[in-house]
Design brief:
six-stranded mixed sheet, 324 residues, 2 domains, D-Maltodextrin-Binding Protein, domain 2, single chain, five-stranded mixed sheet, globular
């Protein structure tokens, strides 16, 4: 009887261990996809191609970058949110699809806070606020004073309705009770060109588009929208130093996975991507595009997304942005 009981207990223990053993099966055993919900050459596309080969080498399997642009990044983000959580599909997405769309689009076909699992905050990029030389202001205080003095006289360009470029100016207007007319453009180079051509008076746009023109004296850069001075443009004051302590407007890129992806796989991907981002050559290449690598834990990314939603939801509602 004792032998039979021992054998029975051993069998039950083995059966209970099967699910855990199955979860610990070797991974990866085939190529991994990282979906970019924007076109080739976009900031997320550039970022992921800088580390994908390094991660592939560490994991021993190819890492394939797949572009799925559309609907401001929502199409590709939705695709990954509905993908199998088997550890072979990941996403590199941005502020809009991961946070802003949840505020102004009640019909969003996915919920990034429920349908996606954070892996790591990969890279950040502040905007640079720049003004036309014709505006004849030298700092943020003068820029804001001009808008306050003549509401509606001035206009500004952005990289599109609802973009961080758009919201960066709108939060300044909201905090200072100022007004200027918004003229959206299809890209940051076009938004900067509008300043140079005299079509608009100012903009807050990615530094890679504006800093070469500022250094050439064709316009004046007056501030960065990050909480601290950018290592890549240390001469520019922050908005806090310019009198707006509560303004932090960063374009950021995060690696996500379908919800339900096993935690050991998420932790391994986090480890490999963060290691690749921290390599000096990766950081040097990112710096040429005025991007800084981050490399957070999944928990830190989840917290950051919630903070961003709380920060920008009131601004988005104030502006009256809708999916239509």
């Amino acid at each position: 009887m004792n032998l039979r009981r021992t054998l029975l207990l051993a069998g039950l223990c083995c059966a209970a261990a099967l699910p855990a053993a199955a979860q610990q099966a070797p991974w990866p055993t085939k190529p991994i996809r990282i979906v970019v919900p924007y076109g080739p050459g976009s900031s997320p596309d550039v970022l992921v191609r800088l580390f994908s080969d390094k991660v592939a080498k560490s994991l021993g399997q190819p890492v394939v970058v797949e572009n799925k642009p559309g609907a401001g990044g929502n199409t590709g983000t939705d695709y990954v949110a509905k993908a199998a959580p088997d550890g072979y599909t990941f996403l590199v997405s941005t502020n809009g699809p991961l946070v802003y769309s949840t505020v102004f689009n009640p019909k969003l076909p996915y919920d990034p806070f429920k349908d996606l699992a954070p892996v790591t905050l990969a890279g950040v990029q502040p905007n640079v606020c720049a003004v036309s030389n014709d505006l004849k202001v030298g700092d943020v205080k003068g820029w804001v004073a001009a808008m306050q003095k003549d509401p509606g006289k001035y206009n500004y360009s952005s990289t599109g309705v609802g973009s961080m470029s758009h919201l960066s100016v709108e939060i300044v207007k909201l905090r200072s009770n100022a007004y200027a007319v918004h003229l959206p453009y299809a890209s940051s180079p076009l938004a900067v060109l509008a300043i140079l051509q005299g079509d608009v008076h100012f903009a807050c746009v990615p530094p890679v588009a504006v800093m070469p023109q500022a250094k050439a004296g064709k316009l004046k850069a007056i501030a960065v929208t990050s909480a601290r001075r950018s290592k890549l443009a240390p001469e520019l004051p922050t908005m806090a130093e310019s009198g707006f302590p509560d303004i932090q407007a960063l374009a950021w890129m995060a690696i996500m996975a379908p919800a339900g992806t096993p935690q050991p796989i998420i932790q391994r991907m986090n480890k490999e991507i963060v290691a690749a981002l921290n390599e000096p050559d990766t950081q040097q290449k990112l710096a040429t595009a005025y991007m800084e690598s981050v490399g957070s834990t999944p928990e830190e990314l989840a917290s950051w997304m919630r903070e961003e939603r709380d920060r920008w939801a009131p601004v988005i509602r104030h502006v009256g942005l809708t999916a239509n």
